[in-house]
Specification:
The radius of gyration is 19 Å and the shape is globular. α2 crosses α14 and α9 runs parallel beside α11. It contains 14 helices and 10 strands. With 351 residues, it is of the alpha/beta class. It has a 7-stranded parallel sheet with strand order 3-2-1-7-8-9-10, sandwiched between helices. The protein has a 3-stranded antiparallel sheet with strand order 5-4-6. 39% of the residues lie in helices and 16% in strands.
C-alpha cells in the first residue's frame, strides 16, 4: 500500500460503481461489451486501438506525453504544451470505417509540405493545440476533437504536464562501448545504438490526469502495449498515481508484446527480456495475460516462465500482417483480444 492509496480511494468514490444487479456506470447489464482502457503511444497504441474499437464501444486510450521530436517537439518547445502527436494518432485510430471517419483520419494525419515554418506539422497537432489554448483544458479539448471526428472511444493524456524521458544507456557512444551514459529525450532514447538499462521521467513523481486514473480503476480490462518498450510502454509505470491504479484496479490486465525487437531501443531483446525489463520498473504490477504472436516466440517455455513472475498466462495467436512486416493486423489482433476477454474470466457486470 502506498501513500497515494487514499487518493485512489477518493477516485473510486467519485467513479460510479457496479451494482449487485449487474449494471455498471452506464446501466450496462449482462452481455454488454467490456469497458477497456488501453495504454501506450505511437504506432503500437494505434494498432491496439484499431483492433479494440472493433469489439467494444467502451474504450479509453491513455497516451504517453514524453514525445520531443518532429512536429510535437516543435510545438512543445515553442508553446510549452503537451506533445500532441501520439494523442492525434490515437484519435485517428479510433475513427470509424465510414466515409466521415476515414476522411477525418486522413485530415488530422496530413502533414504540410513546404519550405517554411509549417513544413512537417500535422494538421491534427495544430487543431489539438488550438483547442487547448481556446479551452484551457486538455481533456475537454481532446473530448471535443473526438466528437468532431466521431471517434469510437476517448483519448486522455497520462499526465497533465509534458515529460522528459531519461535513460541509462550502455554504449550510447560507440567509441565508448562499456560506458553507461544518461540519454535525454524520447526521440534520442528510441534511436540509441546502445543498450537501454532503465528509464525515468522528469519531473519525477509527475501528476496523473485524474480521468485517466479513474478510467483504469473502473475498467473491466486494461491493455498495455504493444509499442516502443522504453519510450511508450514503460513511461506509464513511471507516473505514480497511474501505477497505483494499475496495481489496485480490479480489472484484468493484458500485456501485448511487440512482433519484433525495435532497432536501437530493444535491439536483440527476446520476448521474455521485455517482461524482465517491465518487472524491474514495476515490481508490484500483476498481469493476467501476456499476448504474443506465435511466430515471434522461439522459446515458449522461457516466455511462460517470465510471465509467471507477473502471475500471467501466455496466449499465442497469429496477430501479424501477412506481408511479413512487423505490424499488427487489426482484424487478427481484434480476434485475439476478443478471445482473451471471453476466455480468461470476466470481472464485472458484463460477464
Amino acid at each position: 500500500m502506498t501513500a497515494r492509496t487514499p487518493r485512489l480511494s477518493r477516485l473510486r468514490r467519485l467513479t460510479p460503481g457496479r451494482g449487485e444487479d449487474g449494471a455498471g456506470r452506464s446501466g450496462r447489464r449482462r452481455g454488454a461489451a467490456p469497458k477497456v482502457v488501453a495504454l501506450g503511444g505511437g504506432q503500437g497504441l494505434s494498432a491496439s486501438l484499431a483492433a479494440l474499437r472493433r469489439i467494444t464501444g467502451d474504450l479509453t486510450a491513455v497516451v504517453t506525453v514524453a514525445d520531443d521530436g518532429g512536429s510535437s517537439g516543435r510545438l512543445r518547445e515553442e508553446l510549452g504544451v503537451l506533445p500532441p502527436g501520439d494523442l492525434r494518432k490515437a484519435l485517428a485510430a479510433l475513427c470509424g470505417d465510414d466515409d466521415w471517419g476515414q476522411t477525418w483520419a486522413r485530415v488530422i494525419q496530413h502533414r504540410f509540405q513546404s519550405q517554411g515554418d509549417l513544413h512537417g506539422h500535422a494538421v491534427g497537432n495544430l487543431l489539438i493545440v488550438a483547442l487547448w489554448e481556446q479551452l484551457g483544458d486538455p481533456v475537454q479539448a481532446l473530448d471535443l476533437v473526438g466528437r468532431l471526428l466521431g471517434a469510437q472511444g476517448r483519448v486522455l493524456p497520462m499526465s497533465a504536464v509534458p515529460l522528459e524521458l531519461q535513460a541509462l544507456v550502455k554504449g550510447h557512444d560507440p567509441a565508448r562501448p562499456e560506458d553507461v551514459d544518461t540519454v535525454r529525450g524520447q526521440a534520442t532514447v528510441a534511436l540509441t545504438p546502445g543498450e537501454v538499462h532503465s528509464v525515468q521521467v522528469v519531473p519525477r513523481d509527475p501528476p496523473a490526469v485524474p480521468e485517466a486514473v479513474a478510467a483504469v480503476l473502473d475498467a473491466d480490462w486494461v491493455v498495455l502495449g504493444p509499442g516502443s518498450w522504453f519510450s511508450s510502454v514503460i513511461p506509464h509505470l513511471l507516473v505514480p498515481e497511474l501505477l497505483d491504479a494499475l496495481v489496485e484496479t480490479k480489472a484484468r490486465r493484458v500485456l501485448s508484446l511487440n512482433l519484433a525487437p525495435q532497432p536501437g531501443e530493444t535491439e536483440g531483446f527476446s520476448p521474455q527480456r521485455h517482461l524482465e525489463v517491465l518487472a524491474r520498473h514495476a515490481p508490484k504490477l500483476a498481469l493476467d495475460v501476456v499476448l504474443a504472436d506465435e511466430a515471434a516466440v522461439p522459446d515458449r517455455e522461457s516466455l511462460a516462465d517470465a510471465a509467471k513472475r507477473f502471475g500471467a498466462a501466455v496466449e499465442l495467436a497469429p496477430v501479424a500482417r501477412e506481408d511479413g512486416s512487423p505490424k499488427h493486423d487489426p482484424e487478427l489482433l481484434a480476434a485475439a483480444y476478443d478471445r482473451i476477454f471471453r476466455m480468461h474470466g470476466r470481472i464485472g457486470p458484463w460477464r
